[in-house]
Amino acid sequence: MDSVTSQTPRPVPPVAGLGQTSSGSGEDTAAGAETDLGKIRSAPAPLVITVHGTPAPQGSKRHVGRGVMIETSKLVKPWREAVKHAALLQVTTEVVFRGQHRTIEGPVIVEVTFTLHKPASAPKRRTTWPQRKPDVDKLLRSTLDALSDAGVWVDDAQVVEVTARKVFPLEGVDALPHPGALIRIWEVTP
User: Could you write out the three-class secondary structure of 16-28?
Assistant: First the structure.
């Protein structure tokens, strides 16, 4: 069953203009660092969405005739529905409890951690990495499209920076205890 759980927000990722001196070298002075810290502290908290379910890649489509294309993977639709449901639930929570969500119209930064099912053949006592299929870029494609369908933003073309990782349950940064995804979305503000 899809649900949303609360997560402790991580620090806001770097935003254009932070950490730059007048020369643009990126070397901070003490005063510049204080100014940047103020900008980070005043930045809005990210929208955090936790999706439960098996992440599915959105890959190729198959032509079935008369200009009709269908998705080749039957797992994509349930995954996109799970993402959409979790996003709508989180957005509703933001509106009800904080009265502050709206569709994002400007540039966004997205961070996604996909937790994949660990194969029975994988070692149990050490951290391993899901270095086989599904490809992280195809997982992102299905997830970002579902967030567009949920109305989190107008279009996924607004994503100007993305960080994505694949992990196994409870192994690695932001890994969930079961398959799913942890998504953080920051609206880039001037």
Answer: CCCCCCCCCCCCC
